[in-house]
Amino acid sequence: MVTFDKFLQVMDTLLGENGCPWDREQTHESLRQYMLEECYEAVQAINDGDMVALREELGDVLLQVVFHAKLAEKAGKFDIGDVIEGVSQKLVSRHTHVFGEDIASDSSEVMKIWEANKQKESAGTVEDSMRAVPLALPALVRASKVVKRSGKELPSAEALICEITKMFTQTDTLREDFGKILLAIVSLSNVLFINAENSLTNAVEAFINTDSPVDTLGN
Question: Are the beta carbons of 152 and 106 closer than 8 angstroms?
Fold first, then answer.
């Protein structure tokens, strides 16, 4: 069996003086697209329930993580050990209901503790926390995270549905309000504990696979 240390040695050889010319030319920026692609392919394997594919795709994701860490090591910035240490410390510091004195009886309380500990680490404002959500995320994912970090108490599902309906009736400002409508729908998904990104993905697949797309949208 190939160990993690052996894998690191393989990468060192590829990036070494007598290694692969293509690998040695890569930068964080040139590899950026591959990180995204491999993550999406891993997600697709999960969606398909394909464990053979998932095993392979997780390997490709790991390759990207190690590749970036090795480039950073060559530049004298950090190495894979720093990456592992950092994420380990994060897990301990944010799971204070396991490694500390906080108490969580269910997953919702765990998420509150996680976000509270995360806010302590950032030492910034709520606005800073919202701005820290990466622009590169898919819009629905980013919107959901921003709403969750806002600290604002979300209205009830009924109130949000009423507000969405109201905006749709204001046809003179519909173009300007459309983004607000989408944000309200994402807020509604948070209230209902529904993953908006996954929900839309499933709906798109149903739309593609149905013989009567209009009926699908109407139902």
Answer: no
